[in-house]
Design brief:
Blueprint lengths: L8 E7 L2 H13 L7 E5 L14 H6 L23 E5 L3 E6 L1 H9 L11 H8 L4 H12 L3 E7 L4 H10 L3 E6 L19 H4 L4 H18 L2 H15 E3 L5 E4 L4
Antiparallel strand pairs: 1-5, 1-6, 2-4, 2-5, 3-4, 7-8
Helix pairs in contact: 3-9, 4-5, 8-9
Length: about 260
């Protein structure tokens, strides 16, 4: 059996054209990078994408996947191979198409970075992940201008190889984070302690248990961590209301 893919560092870069992004995704896949470890964000996919609606800032803060999100193929490109493609609204940037783990982070795990911060936007999320604030600000500005952000999670012993690959494909402002992007529970949650701190901070202990149970059930059915996280958040919204501190702790009464 082949060894499991080791995602140990995250290399990110800005690209000016989506054709460059498509080419890079193909080259990363050819070099053995798992499709579950490639993230893309951009505004200018919209003209070639049938958009059913947008997720509001409040939906992002709540960490839930609400009506208006879309998943599926985008202009028949390699982007359609990535996991969890959706549309969301980010303060200071606007409507964004996000694919891969970064989309799940923006919709769920790291949504606390956007809460109560007067629209901190993408900079807050990226700095939470370990990126310097000045670099994150450049990324946000260039996304706002219509360019694209690509993030590839790669083995540490091949980081140099993939950095050169990304640069040769036209990547600018290349930066490496010394870890992979966080998941709700990689490979399933044994206990609520396995959840990321950002998720736990929005849930009461009882709600944490509900989240873990639903997450594991959907992960077993689909083997898709993004779908499992979205389904878990949807269950939370169905079964709990927020208290005055913004924590899902009030069980909804059923008639």
């Amino acid at each position: 059996m082949p060894e499991p893919y080791k995602a140990e560092r995250t290399i990110s870069a800005i690209f000016k054209e989506h054709k460059q992004v498509d080419d890079l995704i193909r080259r990363l896949l050819d070099r053995g990078v798992s499709r579950d470890h490639i993230s893309v964000m951009g505004r200018n996919f919209q003209s070639e994408t049938r958009i059913a609606g947008f997720i509001t800032k409040r939906d992002v803060i709540l960490g839930g996947l609400r009506t208006g999100a879309i998943f599926g193929s985008l202009f028949g490109s390699f982007l359609s191979l990535l996991t969890g493609v959706g549309v969301l609204f980010i303060p200071f940037v606007g409507p964004i198409v996000a694919a891969g783990p970064i989309g799940a982070i923006l919709l769920g795990a790291a949504s606390g970075a956007l809460a109560g911060s007067a629209g901190a936007g993408l900079v807050s999320v990226l700095t939470t992940l370990g990126m310097p604030e000045d670099k994150a600000a450049i990324y946000q500005t260039r996304l706002q201008a219509g360019e694209f952000l690509v993030m590839a999670e790669v083995p540490s012993d091949r980081a140099g190889e993939f950095q050169l690959l990304i640069q040769s494909a036209g990547g600018e402002e290349v930066h490496t984070i010394e870890q992979a992007l966080p998941r709700a529970c990689a490979g399933g949650c044994n206990t609520p302690e396995d959840l990321s701190p950002e998720i736990r901070s929005h849930l009461s202990p009882e709600a944490q248990g509900t989240f873990v149970e639903r997450y594991n059930t959907v992960l077993k059915e689909t083997n898709d961590e993004t779908k499992a996280e979205h389904a878990a958040w949807e269950t939370i919204h169905q079964q709990y209301d927020e208290d005055e501190n913004g924590i899902f702790s009030k069980a909804k009464t059923t008639v």
